[in-house]
Amino acid sequence: MTERSTSRRRFLGAVGAGTLAGLAGCMSSFGGETTDSGGEISIPSLAQFRGSGALTEGRPAPGGTSIADLPDLSGTLNLYIGGGEGGIYQRFITMLESIYPDFSVFDSDSPSASLAQQIVEEVNAGTSEADLFWSIDAASLGYVAENDAYEPLANDALEPVPSDFQGADGSWVGVAGRARSVPYNTETIDEGAIPEKVQEFPQTDALQGTMGWAPTYGAFKSFVTAMRLQEGAETTREWLTAMREVGTERYPNEYVATQAVADGDLTAAFANHYYAMRVKNQRPDAPLDLAFTSGDAGALVNVAGVLQIEGTEKDELITDFVRHLLSAEAQEFFATVSYAYPMIPGVKPVGGLPTVDELNPPDIDLADLADLEPTLELMSEAGVSG
Hints:
With 386 residues, the protein is α/β, with parallel strands linked by helices. The protein folds into two domains: 18-177 and 303-352, D-Maltodextrin-Binding Protein, domain 2 (3-Layer(aba) Sandwich), CATH 3.40.190.10; 178-300 and 361-381, 3-Layer(aba) Sandwich (D-Maltodextrin-Binding Protein, domain 2), CATH 3.40.190.10. The protein has helices spanning 3-8, 88-99, 112-125, 138-146, 155-158, 218-231, 233-245, 254-263, 273-282, 315-325, 328-337, 373-381; strands spanning 34-35, 42-43, 75-82, 103-110, 132-135, 150-151, 173-185, 211-213, 249-250, 268-269, 271-272, 288-291, 301-309. Strands 3, 4, 5, 6, 7, 11, 12 and 13 form an eight-stranded mixed beta sheet that branches. The chain has a three-stranded parallel beta sheet with strand order 9-8-10, with helices on one face. Strands 1-2 form a two-stranded antiparallel ribbon. The chain starts with a helix and ends in a 5-residue tail after the last helix.
């Protein structure tokens, strides 16, 4: 095993071992219920925010701002929320509504891209009644921002998150991340045999005819878009064609492809990182690990995030709500229930994954991922239609 491969792989080896380092500034309010000074608001214990299974064993209390230290939520929010993530985001909203009896959310659930178009149309027509947009991807947030259908978020809502995961001029802020990765079967291939650049994959003998992908998946299209933005359309078309010609197998989704890797039907696949997390949580002994490429589209980190819609008059409530999404409890919830990348430094990802600042994503504006039409055209030209 080379020094390079040692430093960037074996991220899942600590699953269930309880060896994650303790975090500085762990909050004393965790471990039991906490009430505000008036004794009316009860904050559930950390265990009620944390997921279960092998990946959560031995985790320390997260750092960051506790919900107990934030202003109470009171009022009503009209929320457009992008479909996906198995209803996990709605589950957290329900928890907040249970904590704060004077707070309620009326949500409209549709695909993020459709909601982004609807928001722009409603703002332009002067008919918008929504306050906040919670999208599962930065591309949809970028579309709304580029069409000036937003109001900048307050500094208090932006401050907890690194600038890499914020929109220009405070147009949006990330609340949960997902990284492109290469799940691979540890019994079939050595980690050092997986290249650090996706452009090298078609020429890697050990991966020819043994990889899987899911071209219909939105995450895959964003990955290809990132490659097109970084490498150009011709290089991207050539890569897609080469991967198809060496026998990359098509799967209906990335979870199924990752399961196939764990089962030994594939050597490796292209998938978001959390599918391997789901498999490992269910099957801790599965011969499955993750590799991450470096500085290219294969290392893309996309985010779910929120944007304040132009015309709302609920600035203060929106700010407080977003701060709750970036609280220690919320980030622990997203990290251990959906296996997302936390957006605040005080919360670690699950299962020994590298932290966000240890990854090396491509230097592109996430908002530019909204430009999908050229990507769909070149995928079709390469015989890899989405």
